[in-house]
Write a structure and sequence with these properties.
The chain has helices spanning 11-37, 41-64, 103-108, 133-156, 175-183, 187-200, 202-205, 208-220, 223-249, 327-334, 353-374, 380-399, 437-442, 467-478; strands at residues 6-7, 67-70, 74-79, 85-90, 94-101, 110-117, 126-132, 169-172, 253-256, 260-265, 270-276, 280-287, 296-303, 316-323, 346-347, 401-405, 408-414, 418-424, 430-434, 444-451, 458-466. By secondary structure, the protein is an alpha+beta fold. A hairpin with a 3-residue loop joins strand 17 (408-414) and strand 18 (418-424).
């Protein structure tokens, strides 16, 4: 245990400088482009020099004024240059402690320690951006395992000892599965969109003469050459998408302990994260349009997180890719509290189909009518979109359903991807039964249940169910009957 305040490793100054430059560059870029367009290079250089000097001074002072101290039952953090902030985090309020390493961390033998509490404000959490790896592990063990052992020994009246939990089960993704995951992921579309955005800005960045020469050369080529060129570009972008997935999830390993899941992953940036079992609100199985025909799925969990950040993903991934037939065995090993069983699932009645077709195609159908009246020769375009929307609505109808299994609710739905959520009764925060006038005439109703997650809550909605099935779920939710 530490008795004197400590500072972060001096490399933390580098991370502060990089982060400050990253935040400043987007705000300063329009001014730079405007100044360069007016040949005001001198002012750009002066401004950049002053900004760089301020960032360096601020980063050095921030590092010097940042100290942390681990006491018997809490960690104290003091920071701030002009305004001093003193933050105290009790061990008993800590939900997870994650270690991560980027390239600089790994070269210098450092790690980042992310401490997350149960609060809803990420500003009360803590992130030690650069400490020695041994120091990071010491902090992790002292703040996590010591707390658990103290709670158990206090009940028995015995002295406390540091005990490391024993792994109960473990799964690791193979390089072959990771390659398939990258090949079928949606990262290709993201990279294609970024490529298109960058390409669209070329005209304002590169010289007009060079841009015009390239454009004239492209239009002068034969159609076959342009097609080959487009195919090569798409293949390169696809390869970049595969590489991005491999780099992000390399050596992905999930381990089950008595009270938590422990995940390690990453090639260039190695991350270690902890998911306390008591914070898991639901388990999900997601099948994208590409992966579903191949019988592949991704596993994720919804967690009640203390940090709300736009940089976080909506879900917490617990396995990048596995066969649908292996989902049940995966849960039995790592999350035996949940059961994946869809046999006997209640599907939607036939009279629900018109609602799904109408909701999915109402806008393109209106567009088809308007364009047919004003530009009849182009009416086939929105008509095709309408037919595709009807197909989408039909697949939504065929996918949607639910299943009660003891104290667990299974809800299956579709946006573009097929999503199956497993929710335990104790995790449900609310239940609603909704009907409008047409529903009442057709003996239909909609259910709306909600759980907590890192974005304040997630709703599971199943529309156009038979009323008797909705009442069955309501009885199960309120414990009026044993299901």
């Amino acid at each position: 245990m530490m008795s004197e305040p400590k500072r972060l490793h001096p490399a933390a100054m580098i991370f502060n400088i990089v982060q400050a430059i990253r935040q400043s560059i987007f705000g300063a870029l329009p001014l730079v482009i405007l100044a360069v367009g007016n040949d005001a290079w001198f002012y750009v250089i002066i401004g950049a020099s002053v900004l760089a000097a301020l960032i360096i001074i601020f980063s050095v002072l921030s590092w010097y004024r940042y100290t942390y101290l681990l006491e018997e039952d809490q960690i104290r953090i003091h920071q701030g240059i002009l305004i001093r902030k003193k933050r105290t985090i009790s061990k008993h309020r800590i939900q997870s402690i994650d270690l991560s390493q980027n390239i600089i961390h790994r070269i210098m033998g450092l790690t980042k320690v992310q401490i997350e509490t149960a609060g809803s404000d990420h500003r009360i959490d803590a992130a030690l951006s650069a400490v020695k790896m041994a120091e990071g592990k010491k902090l992790h063990d002292q703040l996590k395992y010591k707390k658990q052992v103290m709670e158990e020994d206090e009940e028995e009246g015995e002295p406390t000892e540091d005990v490391v939990p024993v792994a109960e089960a473990q799964r690791k993704i193979t390089p072959k599965a990771l390659l398939v995951a990258g090949s079928t992921s949606g990262s290709f579309g993201i990279i294609l969109g970024l490529f298109g955005l960058v390409f669209s800005q070329f005209e304002s960045v590169i010289p007009d003469r060079f841009y015009n020469q390239v454009t004239e050369w492209l239009f002068s080529q034969a159609a076959q050459i342009l097609i080959v060129f487009a195919i090569i570009v798409l293949l390169l972008l696809w390869v970049l998408g595969v590489l991005a997935t491999i780099i992000q999830y390399w050596n992905f390993t999930i381990t089950r302990y008595e009270k938590e899941l422990f995940i390690t992953r990453g090639l260039l940036e190695k991350k270690q994260s902890t998911i306390p079992l008591k914070r898991i609100q639901a388990v999900g199985i997601k099948e994208t349009l590409i992966r579903q025909p191949l019988g592949l799925a991704t596993m994720y969990v919804e967690i009640a997180s203390g940090e709300i950040s736009q940089n976080q993903e909506m879900h917490t991934l617990i396995f990048p890719l596995l066969r649908k037939s292996q989902v049940q065995s995966f849960l039995q090993e790592l999350l035996p509290e949940y059961q994946y069983e869809i046999e006997g699932m209640t599907k939607l009645p036939k009279k629900a189909l018109p609602y799904y077709l109408f909701r999915s195609a109402v806008l393109p159908l209106i567009a088809t009518i308007v364009i047919a009246i004003m530009f009849f020769e182009f009416s086939w375009i929105p008509l095709i979109v309408t037919l595709l929307a009807w197909g989408y609505g039909y697949f939504q109808y065929k996918t949607t359903g639910f299943l009660l299994n003891g104290k667990q609710l299974l809800v299956q739905s579709r946006t573009l991807s097929k999503d199956t959520a497993l929710v335990q009764h104790k995790r449900l925060q609310s239940f609603k039964k909704k009907q409008h006038i047409l529903h009442r005439k057709q003996n239909l109703a909609t259910i709306d249940t909600a759980i907590l997650n890192k974005f304040m809550g997630r709703h599971f909605v199943v529309k156009e169910l038979p009323v008797e099935e909705v009442d069955k779920i309501a009885d199960w939710y309120s414990y009026r009957t044993d299901t």
